[in-house]
Amino acid sequence: MSWTDLGGGVLSRRSRAFQMHSVVLLDAAHTVLVDPGVLPSELDDIAARVRAVNPAAITLIFTHAHWDHVLGRAWWPSARTIGHHRFTTDLHRSMEWLHDEADKIAAQHGEKWAKRFEPFRPDEAVAGLHFHKVGPWRLVFRDAFGHSDSQYSIHLPEQRVLIAADMLSDIEVPMLDREPPATYLATLRALLPALEGGAIETLIPGHGTIARGRAEVERRFTRDLAYLEALEREVRRLREGGASLAEAQGKLSKMDDVERHPEHPMRETHLENIQLAYEGVPAARS
Asked: In the prediction, which pLDDT does 1 show?
């Protein structure tokens, strides 16, 4: 099913494209949409679900500025928007390929865009650890760098739900963006106290399937931490031993837990991760 009702007005819609999740916090007084997308027909479906409630106010929250997470802005042009304080800079960087990628994914699914995305600046910018109330919804924003310069996670403490942005997927390895593994590792480790304290029982990843129950959520953290720690450790060992980037990529190309889903190959992403890890390690002294 494309829709999952998590109770208490929290719904998630999983796209046919990349298994991406759009989260709807449905309330007649104030509805919140997190990363609405990805395809035109799916955005129409989300809009219909929201119209059925006819909320007095709508807020759009974007976990980061990557193209597949921002396209829904065109469906609610008058809604208030929240993004990271780096969002505008990050979005500007991706505008070169945003429309090409959006057109490509729509065509792959037999669709076209009737509403064209236009770049925007969020009405409200947040950063760091930020506690926020949007209508009846209590949200905790936390910087989540490593995959994107403009990413944060969103925690709903009352519902014990973590909206993890593009982290903790069961179909994708962590995808580094211009940063070595240490940045991503710090992001995940900062979330562990909430998990260990019982504040997270449901995890909605950017892509993949929802993790339900503390044990499954813990497995997601353990898996991604293990991948990043091994990547960091093995790349450092090879580079300090004098290996070239090509040699490191060759030796680590089949590292454990790279390919997690047959329809979502990760080999190229893994090779890029090795490069970013390699560039973060000082070259061996001769």
From this structure: 59
